[in-house]
Amino acid sequence: MNKAHQVFLPSHGNQWAYGIGASIGTSWQFKENWWLGASYISELHFSKLDKYEDDLLGASEGKINLPERYGFGFKHRPNEKITLAADVLRMNWQKADGLGKKGSFNWKNQLIYRAGVNYELTPKDQLRLGYSHASKVVDSNDTLVNFYANAISNEAWTVGYGHDFSQVAVNIAYEYAINKDLKGSGNSTGSNLSNQNHVITLGLSKSF
């Protein structure tokens, strides 16, 4: 009988890393109230996280980068109150240090499908709703090594609200990632993952 052993690593306290990357995007209004857009974001390279290079991030020498991403989408305004949008995003985790092949977690490349609606309550108030569905990044035979990088939830709902003040816009959102369970197989038999995420976001923006 196979038994999965969990190894609890020591905490190294707060760690800081600095990153650099580049992005480019474009949009095109191809007919009245219809837009197409595309974007490309390079891999975001971060500096090393001290001490984690000796254990959790040993395979990537202490680095954990955000992956190369690219995608396209559309936006449509059927009337003055409602804006509809949808896009497809590709995330190349396999090429990124830390989580893909150059790390310990072996995350798979991912396709993400997203759709949302924005409703204008008043000229200054916006109400938003969104849904996303993504392909899996963790296989059942990699559950053991992903004990510290549990990212198995692949569906999420988001609600948000925005208000435009005279000098700045404030946006708040709540995201719920639907419960997900993944049973380990192969070398990960007996190591099962369960994941549920709740994320609250607060943002400030200003146009120039």
Break the fold down into its secondary structure elements and pairings.
Elements: E1 19-20, E2 23-31, E3 34-41, E4 45-46, E5 68-76, E6 82-92, E7 110-122, E8 125-134, E9 155-164, E10 169-182, E11 193-205
Antiparallel strand pairs: 1-4, 2-3, 3-5, 5-6, 6-7, 7-8, 8-9, 9-10, 10-11
Global shape: globular
Helix tally?
Answer: 0
Q: What percent of residues adopt helix (DSSP H or I)?
A: under 10%
Strand content: over 45%
Low-confidence stretches are 1-5
**Total DSSP E strands:** 11
* Rg, alpha carbons: 20 Å
Mean pLDDT: 89
Terminal Cα separation, in Å?
65 Å
Major sheet details:
9 strands, antiparallel
Q: How would you classify the helix and strand content by structural class?
A: mainly beta
**Sequence of secondary-structure elements:** EEEEEEEEEEE
Q: If strands are numbered along the chain, what order do they take across the biggest sheet? A: 2-3-5-6-7-8-9-10-11
Using brief descriptors, characterize the structure shown.
208 residues, mainly beta, 9-stranded antiparallel sheet, two-stranded antiparallel ribbon
